[in-house]
Specification:
Blueprint (H helix, E strand, L loop, with lengths): L1 E4 L14 H9 L3 E5 L10 H7 L2 E3 L2 H7 L2 E3 L6 H4 L7 E4 L7 H10 L2 E4 L14 H18 L21 E5 L3 H12 L3 E6 L2 H11 L4 E4 L2 H10 L2 E4 L14 H4 L7 E4 L20 E4 L2 E4 L9 H30 L1 H4 L2 E4 L2 E2 L2 H7 L7
Parallel strand pairs: 1-2, 1-4, 2-3, 4-5, 5-6, 7-8, 7-10, 8-9, 10-11, 11-13
Antiparallel strand pairs: 6-14, 12-13, 14-15
Length: 366
């Protein structure tokens, strides 16, 4: 199969769909890889590195799309990239369609087969291609939050770990999944006062054992969240409903109870965000203020640590890329129902029910 890797074009996005090592694996198995020039330059992968791995370098994204049968990316295609997709194309990338109707409609119009990393499953019910970026975003959320709590960044002037004689900062983490756990690990490491909120009592019991009493756990009722927001210095939004829009857990009214200079970090912003006042931002302009509360809502958080993120992502995606390249989209999904769960768009229809419901678009079972 001919596999294409265009350069990512989202603002301050330096990750790349395939590393040179991943390209080498594909070429070893007899596949052709076409890479846009400087696709990996943001993380010090040169064109020469890709050529040494067996890739062919081309000058533009259009040349990649024209030559390739499968497109492997990191972030969702921008609208003019969607316009380069054909019905015979297989697209493999993050899509996060539930918060992006224009992109969903553009992908439907293209007729391409689009598999979303974030809804591919595994035998344990997990999301193996979302997991590495959730780990990165969870860990980043605490260092980002700590930075914006500093006075010079507009924050309240709070050191998360405190010092002897001064209480630590209070961190509320909404959601006890992968990103929430990784956020808690970092916050505990900084000696913050950490509470995780979740709607699953079984999960709360697991978290209590996992952290051996170093974090508090609480059931995520509306009243509990309201109380948490009122006392927290840093709130991390880490809720996930696979493929669907994130629920709005923190309302504008709740924001009015927070202390000036407190910080919200919305990891769920790719799926629309879990704070009512959230809207997507970029690494170029990452924060905004509502009622004196700083909001960090960057939609591609892991792009800030692009080299770490690219390696982590490729570790997870490469086996699926190899399977798709060997068997083709239809064959690979027939052979692997967990990969088939990633199918979001095909033949001009939305094929993932939660996305179709959230966007009020036509659904057709694959």
């Amino acid at each position: 199969m001919r596999v294409g890797v265009p350069k990512e074009i989202k603002i301050h996005e330096y990750r790349v769909g395939l590393t040179p090592a991943s390209v080498a694996e594909l070429t070893l198995h007899g596949h052709e890889v076409i890479v846009e020039t400087r696709a990996g330059s943001g993380i010090d992968f040169t064109d020469e590195d890709y050529v040494a791995a067996g890739a062919r370098i081309v000058g533009t994204a259009k040349e990649v799309f024209d030559a390739a049968e499968m497109i492997v990316k990191v972030k969702e295609p921008q609208l003019h990239e969607c316009a380069m997709l054909r019905p015979d194309h297989l697209l493999f990338t993050y899509l996060h369609l539930a918060a992006d109707k224009p992109q969903a409609e553009a992908l439907m119009k293209s007729g391409a087969t689009c598999i979303a990393y974030e809804t591919v499953t595994d035998s344990r019910g997990g999301l193996p291609l979302l997991r590495p970026m959730s780990e990165v975003a969870g860990r980043m959320s605490i260092q980002v939050g700590a930075h914006y709590l500093e006075k010079e960044s507009g924050g309240r002037g709070i050191l998360l770990g405190g010092v002897p004689g001064v209480a630590p900062g209070r961190v509320a983490i909404l959601g006890g999944g992968v990103s929430g756990v990784n956020a808690a690990q970092m916050a505990v490491g900084l000696r913050a006062d950490v509470t995780i909120y979740d709607i699953s009592t079984a999960r709360l019991a697991e978290l209590d054992q996992m952290f051996d009493g170093r974090v508090k756990t609480a059931f995520s009722s509306k009243a509990a969240i309201a109380a948490a927001v009122a006392r927290a210095h840093l709130v991390i939004g880490a809720v996930l409903i696979p493929g669907a829009a994130a629920p709005k857990l923190v309302t504008r009214e709740m924001l009015k109870t927070m202390k000036r200079g407190s910080v919200l970090v919305d990891i769920a912003i790719d799926q629309g965000g879990c704070f009512e006042t959230s809207h997507a931002t970029t690494h170029q302009d990452p924060v905004f203020d509502v009622d004196g509360v700083i909001h960090y809502c960057v939609a591609n958080m892991p792009g800030a640590v692009a080299r770490t993120s690219t390696f982590a992502l490729n570790n997870a995606t490469l086996p699926f890329v190899l399977k798709l390249a060997k068997l083709g989209g239809t064959g690979a999904m027939q052979a692997d129902p967990h990969l088939a769960a990633g199918l979001n768009v095909a033949g001009g229809y939305i094929t993932y029910k939660a996305v179709a419901d959230d966007l009020d678009l036509p659904f057709k079972a694959a």
